[in-house]
Write a structure and sequence with these properties.
Number of helices: 6
Number of strands: 7
CATH class of the largest domain: Alpha Beta
Shape: elongated
Helix content: 40-55%
Structural class: alpha+beta
Strand order of the largest sheet: 1-2-3-4-6-5-7
Distance between the termini: 34 Å
CATH topology of the largest domain: Yope Regulator, Chain: A
CATH architecture of the largest domain: 2-Layer Sandwich
């Protein structure tokens, strides 16, 4: 959907009420008016699709992860403590980036630890996932990690786009996050062992579940995998 600027004449009292509602709902005047008109006309906006995805993800993980924040039509954050010494915390963030109808989902994983040893383990874990993704990543998707901040970033530019069916986007993101969460548990519960075969098995399970969902045909472009050492 394309957005354009229009000039409207409205009663001051109506604008005042709109601004109050926008404040309560953590949005702005233009966005709220757009949502009200879309609902009245029976049109589903990209923002409404995103909110549907976020609310469903919240329900899907309410019993397994701690939901720390949900930003309307924008992002959701989960947190958990790892079964590792000092019980370090890891944060999962799923946010939609881009403009209007071109927005897509991005998963970010990070930890605020300053421990050199723990950050080394995070980097090793991310490298395992990147190696697996390099072999199986869908065309048009992007994955990279930044060694400076010990973060993992996975973009779902095509399969996680607002142009897709929200149910399909939810299924993809739920399966991927469950896989990552299980894999990170396996790794940090056995940091001194070779758990790569187990993580590979979890990744293969994710692929089978993902491929069981019919994909929407579209023009394909070559995948891009950025090695963290090149950033």
């Amino acid at each position: 959907m394309k957005k354009s600027i229009y000039s409207l004449m409205l009663f001051d009292e109506i604008v005042e009420k709109i601004d109050q509602m926008a404040y309560v709902n953590y949005t702005n005047r233009s966005q709220l008016i757009n949502e009200i008109l879309a609902e009245h006309l029976g049109i589903v906006t990209p923002e409404q699709k995103i909110q549907t995805v976020l609310e469903t993800l919240k329900d899907n993980f309410k019993d397994t992860l701690s939901i720390s924040q949900v930003n309307k039509n924008s992002s959701i954050q989960f947190g958990k403590s790892l079964k590792y010494k000092y019980r370090p915390k890891v944060k999962y963030s799923i946010e939609f980036v881009g403009v209007g109808g071109q927005k897509y989902a991005v998963l970010k994983i990070s930890s605020r630890t300053k421990s050199v040893d723990l950050n080394r383990h995070f980097d090793n874990f991310f490298e395992i996932i990147c190696e697996l993704e390099a072999q199986h990543i869908s065309e048009g998707e992007f994955i990279y990690e930044t060694s400076a901040n010990h973060k993992f970033i996975r973009e779902f530019r095509e399969e996680g786009s607002v142009t897709q069916d929200p149910k399909q986007v939810v299924s993809l993101l739920t399966s991927y996050l469950k896989m990552i969460d299980s894999a990170i548990d396996v790794y940090f519960e056995n940091p001194t062992q070779d758990v790569k075969p187990v993580i590979q098995s979890l990744y293969q399970d994710y692929l089978r579940e993902k491929n069981a969902v019919p994909a929407v045909a579209s023009d394909r472009v070559a995948p891009v995998v950025r090695d963290r050492r090149s950033l």
